[in-house]
## 1
Amino acid sequence: MTPWDVRVSPVARQSLLALPDTAFGRVSDTIELLRSSPLLGRECRPSYEAARLPFPCRVIYVGYYGLYYTADKEAQELYLRFIEDQRMGPKRRFTGRLR
């Protein structure tokens, strides 16, 4: 399988660069893994309405962090939308950052 292209939203890029060093490497490795196995993450279906995104996406967890992304099979492109610290209250995720 040809590795998929990965695009990173400005919000996800900012979160990635703010990660502690111990998490940065693991998250980067997971993003690389998703290039060859983009459907590895599960469909995101949170029980809290405030934590739901207005578009279908997938999520994969790396330690405390959830990587929220969409996968376009036709274009073979993965779009990393958010990296969220799962210790944050679910009703406060994505606040003010949805576009």
## 2
Amino acid sequence: MDKRESRNPVESPKSRQRADNEKMTRCPNESIPKRAMAVFTFLITILGAAAAQTPPAPPTPSPTPPAATPAFPPTVSTALDQVALTGADRTDVNLRFVRTLFMPSVAGKVQSVLIFEMTPVEMKVEPVVPPVPPAPPAPATPQGDTAQPAPSVPPVPPAPITVNTFYRLTKADANGAYLPYDDYIVVYQEPVDQTAGAASYTVSLTLDPGSYKLLMAVSDEKLIKMATVRAGLEVPNLMSEKGELVTTPVMFTNSVKMLDAAAVERSARVHKNEFYFANLAIQPKFDNTFAAGESKELLYFVLGAKPEQTERGPGVNVEISYAVKKGSESVIKYDKKAMVLPAGFPMINHPLPLEAKDKTLTPGAYSLSIEIEDKVGGKKLKTEVPIEIK
């Protein structure tokens, strides 16, 4: 089975319906023209509303009444209840929550990319091999005949390692009380020859903005070995109600690649070292730690800029200034970048070397300052991203 595929072991009409309704949108910008043209049709309707700060129309209700949410296996549900009660996590195998990334989605929702570390080889279940009866004696070879060699049997490849992953979310109401929001079950399989110790994995869940508490568990396929972890999630509202200029959280990436249409994610799946956004496979840098002079690509959306008509259709005209700061002092300043982005998918994606001709960063803590000006609407935004040089 392909390692990118996963399944829900408790597949119900509602879970299938929810998976279909949770299609996530994403897009590249004009800094990569081939990608932009490829995803324009895919995303213009979805993100066009976000760029103008007008919430899109809600999806058409399904005529099929929803079924009950798939229940976790009793073993897992009991373990998570115990964790919630005592605050003591289960640690049979390695599991560590790393961080969350956020991308725009439909109807004001947010694609929330959960990044975690686990070690699938720890959850390998050795198959039970039945005893093989002794082979019958070979018939005697007639005198003068040449014995024929036994036919060779190709080796059977080892079965992939199956990891069950479980996500239980509660969401804060207006009074700060955390109420049940949803449960998710995603099964991941990894070929044995691709497993070597701990690695980073992702899963994307489409959530409403707000404050959440996450209880997560991973287990082997027989639910014997298990680990749990807890985390708080603050899902931002990417649709500013005041018409302000906003960005998605800024991330650094190792690579951004286009996917074949058949590979586009239509339900939650676990991925190793990357996540899917519309028809892109994005490999993020999981922390903001860099070597001096290292160059990575920045990736984020600019939302809320006033669109104007351009030769290529509606676009937003922005000017962006970058600087690396040590405290309040700018140690590297970059030339301003003027960009006209498609209004339907105003995504920034370009390299940013962490050095200058006359300046190399010494080890320590810094911040990347980003100033954005909407040249048509006159709006301005300033944000900072902490980084560290090793």
## 3
Amino acid sequence: MNNKNLTFQFKLLVFLLIFWGSIPLAQGQRFSLAACVEYARENNQSLLLKHLEEELSHLGERESKAFMVPELYASGNMEHYWRIPVLAVPGEIVGQPGEVLPVRFGTPWMGEAGFQASWNILDPGAMNRVKLAKLTSSAKAHEREVVESSLVKHVHIAYRALILQEESLENLANAEAYYSEIHRSLGQLLEKGRIDQITLNQSEVILGKYREKLANRKWDKEMAENDLKFWMGFPLDQPLYIESSEIETLPEMAAEGDFPGFAHQQAMTLLRKEEYQGTRNSWLPVLRLRAAYNQMYFGESLRIGAGENWLPVGFMGLQVQFPLFSMGKHFHEPTRKKMEWKRQELAKEEFLAKENHGLQEVKARVEQARTSLATAERELALAEENVRLSRLQLEKERLDVASFRQVQIDMMEALEHYLQRKLDYHIQTVEMAYLSGQF
């Protein structure tokens, strides 16, 4: 009995050690910004889709080259003619001029089996398709880079937003706790007859507003966390822990670099140009090498194993195909391809114009956000000082009710304003880094 108890206790101890030991592993795994970005690169569905499209384009490139390799076929057939074909021949062949003689060709059983090979020695169209496949693969790679850069930008913004929401939640919780103490002090003053019930009721309203804003901030934090999970490709039903450290401030000046997406625009322009130039190949000949070796069967009955019924046939030769006229390929298609090429060139110029305009706007918004953040920081410092001074007035029982109420309202507004200005500043600096090609 004692041995059974010891065995049960030992198993229970092992289970508890494993259970409690596994919790820190899950809860202790905290993501830094770099870890969030790396996780997103590996798990974001949109980026994974672009990786798959890029891989498919590489397969298309190899497939286009494979069509330039010689092709080999095997074929066979066996047919039974219950009425042998008859061909009418002139009688001059057998010395009966002026007459037409019916002659049977073949046997009741006829068939063939063999191999055929072909190789396009000269095929301008095939070579053009190889170039197009290579350019398409390059365009898909640049398209994937655009999606990846955009993803990194959104992860940066979502990560910063979550950090700021946590910071704002902590500040608001401290302000709510601080005001709760003030509210209790007001209750004591009411008991002493120093204030009236109206003042305490107004204080209750202010405390309710603090608690309402605190609840809303918790909801905002959850939304910010879900936003970061979405961009990372992290399961929405699992908790995400991030490193609550100081947010890295990106440089406010635009660095030298290409706009995200410019390489993709260039690749698409080259692709459209090659498509237009490839239409000239529709006028060029195709030179093909063809060869075959077949065994043909003739017999009165089906005797496949009889060697005397099989006759070998083989050939090798060149085939040249000259395109002479095609209204679609020679005239309409080149015109359409040329217009698509010109349209893509205009799209590239439009892209550069828009991005340059956007960069100038972001530069101005960064400066504006920096100034607004400095103002919000000053407002918050003054609001905190006013709250402290009003607390001193309360302790000395020299309370100005109207001024006291306005001080608390100013404090709540200052906290909200500071959060919005700081978040806007980080969004603009991230956008600046994105447009400068830093991601």
## 4
Amino acid sequence: MKHLIVSLALVGFLVPLLSSAGSDEEAITALVKEWESAYNNHDAQQVLACWDENGVIASGARKTPLPKPKYAEYLPARFDLLPKLEVKRIQDVRVASDRAEATILLTNYPSPKANWRGRTEFQLTFSLLKGQDGRWRFVAWDY
């Protein structure tokens, strides 16, 4: 009987932890989809809403780090060169407390104005932070 009580206590402790990790992964997956949709609709405000206020966004082939306000200025030109992107799949989501990483397979579809032709498929890893409000936001990415 004593073992049964201890086992039930452990299950009662572990189930919320497991469901929390699952809900974090679901929230991060939803954020990635929200970002993809906002980008494809050229909704700069919604794209920026996916990023933490202190986020630093690497941009271009040289991965120039841009703080969020500078990225906001750059985003309309980005939409012009890369009007569409597609998240092919979310490969991995790792959560550790209030920090996480999500690795995705992404395809870019450039416009005729771009200085390269054809779609580009590559791996991108988002670094995320869970805010005081419980919402996940991007803080950085690497590609």
